[in-house]
Design a protein that fits this description.
- By secondary structure, the protein is an alpha/beta fold.
- The protein has a single domain, classed as TIM Barrel, CATH 3.20.20.140.
Length: about 280
């Protein structure tokens, strides 16, 4: 019924109970998770997890991991994509992108290095005929510049929170926009407006688990100071997040499930072959 288009099930936060987390999500109707890698050392892990649990994966180098990445990681990524080109569970190059929020990544040298890794990975996506899963944080315009230069086959702008004009530009380049726990906060007025007003064909759902918890899992700084742990997000939260999106758009939850499944399969076409009867959507 649901596809979580962005879920880091390989993260250490799930080491103690990963199987239970995935089973709980399945019981909530989350039939497919897309597991994007963040660095070279994670590629084998996400591949194995997707094969074991019937999920999908993406291979790439996340901008937050660019500082420790080596130049030959790009050659290794090219080789890994070649080796796995026949694997139907490989659905994208990702998570890649630019992050101009973290101060350490905003020096001129690190901005240049991020751009180098981003554009190189766009070229690999184009070479291997794969869409991309994009990390977008205070970087939408430059990400769009790179997409226009590389002409990749679309993908997903993960955790999108830009302007309506930027949203329309991503959509025009074949990208869907990922919405998750952030839209559950009443104060997220711009994001909720986007979720309500963008064309329905642009929307996909995600959790970014274990990160980006919805409001019912979030602990304030004051609560954390009292020893309460930050709530861990999980793919089982996706239907409840979806309920909030359905309310914003004034549509039935079942209709949103079908819509976002179709959108995910269009953004990441290999997902269609992995679909169970509950997630398979007949394209018009």
């Amino acid at each position: 019924m649901w596809i979580d288009t962005h879920c880091h099930l390989d993260a250490a936060e799930f080491d103690a109970d990963r199987d239970a987390v995935r089973q709980q999500a399945r019981q909530q109707g989350v039939s497919l998770c897309v597991i994007p890698a963040v660095e070279r050392s994670h590629w084998a892990r996400v591949t194995q997890l997707a094969a074991r649990d019937g999920d999908a994966y993406a291979l790439g180098i996340h901008p937050l991991y660019v500082p420790q990445a080596q130049d030959d990681d790009l050659q290794a990524l090219d080789a890994a994509l070649t080796e796995r080109q026949a694997d139907p569970r490989l659905v994208a190059v990702g998570e890649i992108g630019l992050d101009y929020f973290v101060p350490a990544l905003c020096t001129p040298a690190m901005r240049e290095r991020q751009w180098f890794f981003y554009t190189a990975q766009l070229q690999l996506a184009q070479k291997h005929g794969l869409p991309v899963i994009l990390h977008v944080r205070r970087s939408a315009d430059l990400l769009l510049k790179g997409l226009r230069q590389a002409a990749v086959t679309g993908g997903i702008a993960h955790a999108f929170n830009g302007s309506i004009q930027q949203a329309q530009a991503f959509v025009a380049l074949g990208c869907a926009l990922g919405f998750g726990g952030a839209l559950t906060y009443d104060r997220a007025l711009q994001l909720r407006r986007l979720a309500a007003e963008l064309p329905a064909s642009a929307l996909v759902l995600e959790t970014d688990a274990p990160d980006m918890p919805p409001h019912w899992l979030y602990q304030t700084a004051e609560q954390r100071a009292l020893g309460l742990p930050q709530g861990r997000n999980s793919p089982a939260e996706l239907p409840r997040i979806a309920q909030q999106l359905a309310q914003l758009r004034g549509m039935p939850l079942a209709a949103l499930a079908q819509l976002t499944t179709a959108n995910a399969q269009r953004a990441l076409p290999r997902l269609a072959a992995l679909a169970t009867p509950a997630t398979r959507v007949v394209q018009a």
